[in-house]
Amino acid sequence: MKSLWSDTEAKKFAGALGRRVYTSRLLGANPELVLHGGGNTSVKVTEKDFFGDPVDVLYVKGSGWDLATIEAAGFAPVRMEALLKMAKLKALSDAEMVKQQRAAMLDPGAPNPSIEAILHAVIPQKVVDHTHANAVVALTNHKGGRESVEEVYGDRMVVIPYVMPGFELALAVAAALSKTDPRSIDGLILMNHGIFTFHDDARRSYELMIEHVSRAEAYLSKKCGKAFAPPKSKPAEDLSGLAEIRRQVSKLRGVPVIASLDASPEAVGFSARPDVAGLATRGPLTPDHTIRTKRAPVVIGDDIGKSIGKFADDYAKYFQKHQKGETMLTPDPRWAVWPGKGVVSFGATEGEAGIVRDIATHTWRTIQVAEAAFDGGWKPLPASKLFDIEYWELEQAKLRKSGSAPVHRGKVAIVTGSAAGIGFACAETLAEQGAKVIGIDLSPEIEAQMEGIGGVGIVANLTEDAKVVAAVEETVRRFGGLDIVVSNAGIFTAGAYLEDLESSNWDKSMAVNLTSHQKLLKHTIPYLKKGVDPAIVLVGSRNVNAPGAGAASYSCAKAGLTQLCRVASLELAPFQVRCNIIHPDAVFDTKLWTPEALQRSAERYGLTVEEYKTRNLMKTEIKSKDVGRMVAAMASPLFGKTTGAQIPVDGGNDRVI
User: Hey, which bits of 264-423 come out as E strands?
Assistant: First the structure.
């Protein structure tokens, strides 16, 4: 491990707090040290309070901030006097500690101080760094962990046996430091937890962290031997199985989840180990990870449902054995080892699934090193200790305060023809309501358009089977499944009376406005059957029920699409897949309708542009967003009992009515 310190960069950060920000970011930049909010840092300063009186302050990382991106505002200023008084108490609940730390802050608008603020305060050095370095955790998580630590560090580090983070750990550290000269050591090794380094100089404290983690890395490398290399294998892809795993996990959690599959050679190699079921389920790298990943992953067997069901049963037993009145979390796994296929991580959002994936990746990589390095192999904390972290009082409080989620959060949606107009409005609305949207369009603009709403754009001609299959499979491969299909792609072919209608006009309309939708359904239905509250919404036209002269190719294709919807609803109802169609009319805020085109059409009817845009029974303008909102509603539980329906969004049309 190398120091990332740069004198040039360091000069951009003024003062003690500025330097604290800089070195904190250096730590956060290395995932071998810190992952997603893990670790914490602090600096002790003397400054004036509101009344101008000098006060000793601990600036400690605030709750919710990530070291990789932390700013000065991410540090909570807490009065040292209060923290040191708390350190002399014999007992203090976590809830009361959080309350008193907040009461001791100079700035009530700052974030809550780290749960380990008191620990930082009892260390006399000005700068304190704490990480959950993989190498250090591997060094401690085996039968002879204490002996290995002492062999590597001698008397340069004080070793602290595992203690629950928070007040108990602060007392343990204070007691250990009272038995030595704190300024004669470089830091602390917390068994099964992580490492602290400290110094009066920010750079020196940071570089001590790099030095001591490097020592652990070198020791592990020597123990493993030069020939050691984790196994690698090629994946055996099974997208249908992935969708089934996601469905089962979503069912257990009670909400749809994103399933992120890591099918890299390294992940597949780990999953294919003959001892993977025992190795992967022994426990996490560090107890803090249980809050995001639970104690262990599920190992998928030949029967997916049975494997995940057993995980849920075992989790319930684990809870009953260790619970002391807590509320049980949902019994779903947060990651899965799928032998021969890779590792799957789950989250209510893509971001959450990504965090779990990062933690899982560091876990399966590191435990293989520890397994190879030490006799007896990888040995984390017992389940009872991990339960205490997973069901920490503070985490239970967060659970009780959690609000309702967006209606489509965790769902995966395909929207075709979504580079502009109605299609984009549908995609945007679904994204706003929490869905992960994959937009498919012939226009290259689709990639930028979808990126702008947090989705994924795929350029494809929907009249080509191979392109449709590739797009659908990429969706499932990337997010684990499919729940919503909005089939919107279409064109308005040039008007012509039947006697003048060119065959190419008719054929093109049928290919795009009807057959492409049939192709999309053919290739998405197998995954929709394994979706969560799955729904199909087809975008038709008012022309189905009120056709106009000279629009045969368009009107007939849309009528065929409506019939396709009805047949699909009949076929898919036994699988709880809904299929409905929406019939919009007079939607003028699209690229098709330029101001000039609107003016010409309005003049043809002897109307002003505004009159033309509102020529319906309700005298209201229909916008793309109105259609998008209706489509999102039709894909939601609000329409959970409706299938085979035709819904107009036209402000009321006397010919239709």
Answer: 298-299, 335-338, 342-347, 412-416
What is the tally of structural domains in the chain?
4
* Angstrom distance (rounded) from CA 611 to CA 594: 16
pLDDT in tens, 137-164: 999 999 999 999 999 999 999 999 999 9
Domain match, 197 and 255 both: no
> Does residue 76 lie within any of the structural domains?
yes
* SS (HEC) of 390-451: HCCHHHHHHHHHCCCCCCCCCCEEEEECCCCHHHHHHHHHHHHCCCEEEEEECCCHHHHHHH
- Establish if 63 belongs to a structural domain: yes
Same domain, 582 and 614: no
Provide CB contacts within 8 A for 284, sequence distance 6+: 290, 293, 295, 296, 359, 363, 380, 386
In a domain, 657, yes or no: no
- The span from the CA of 169 to the CA of 499, in Å, is 87
- For residue 401, the model assigns a pLDDT of 63
For residue 459, the enclosing domain spans 412-587+622-649
Domain assignment present for 146: yes
Q: What is the pTM of this model?
A: 0.93
Determine the Cα–Cα distance for residues 649 and 40; give it in Å rounded to an integer: 54
Q: What digits encode the pLDDT tens for the residues 373-396? A: 999 899 999 999 999 999 988 776
48 and 82 Cβ atoms separated by less than 8 Å: no
CATH number at residue 474: 3.40.50.720
Each residue's pLDDT tens digit, 255-274: 999 999 999 999 999 999 99
CA–CA distance, 454 with 451 (Å, rounded to integer)? 5
Nearest to 359, CA basis, from 257, 308, 291: 291
Query: Beta strand pairing status for 436-441 and 412-416?
Result: parallel
pLDDT band at 33 (very low <50, low <70, confident <90, very high): very high
- b/e per residue 520-559 (b: at least 16 CB within 10 A): bbebbbebbbbbbbbbbbbbbbbbbbbbeeebbbbbbbbb
Under 8 Å between Cβ of 287 and 190: no
487 with 433, same domain: the answer is yes
* Helix pair angle (15-28, 202-224), 10° resolution: 20
By the 8 A CB rule, do 591 and 420 touch?
Answer: yes
Q: Is the dihedral of CA 65, 68, 70, 75 positive or negative?
A: positive
Give the gyration radius of the chain's Cα atoms.
30
Shared-domain flag, residues 278 and 292: yes
How far is it, in rounded angstroms, from Cα 465 to Cα 523?
Answer: 9
- Residues 315 and 207 both lie in one domain: no
Classify the C-alpha dihedral 600-629-417-497 as positive or negative. negative
Round to whole Å and give the CA distance between 36 and 405.
Answer: 22
CATH number at residue 342: 3.40.225
- 607 lies in the same domain as 630: no
- Kind plus residue range of the DSSP H or E element containing 84: helix 80-86
| Ordered DSSP codes for 591-636 | TT--HHHHHHHHHHTT--HHHHHT-STT---B-HHHHHHHHHHHTS
Q: The tokens of 127 are what?
A: 């700068």
Instruction: Name which of 445, 622, 608, 601 is nearest 541 in CA terms.
Output: 622
Same structural domain, 89 and 175: yes
Residue 489 zone, left/alpha/beta (φ > 0; ψ -120 to 50; rest): beta
Distance, CA of 47 to CA of 335 (rounded, Å): 46
Contact 585, 615 (CB under 8 A): no
What count of Cα atoms within 13 Å lies in the side-chain half-sphere of residue 182? Answer: 20
Q: Is 551 helix (H, G, I), strand (E, B) or coil?
A: strand
**Is 24 in the same domain as 93?**
yes
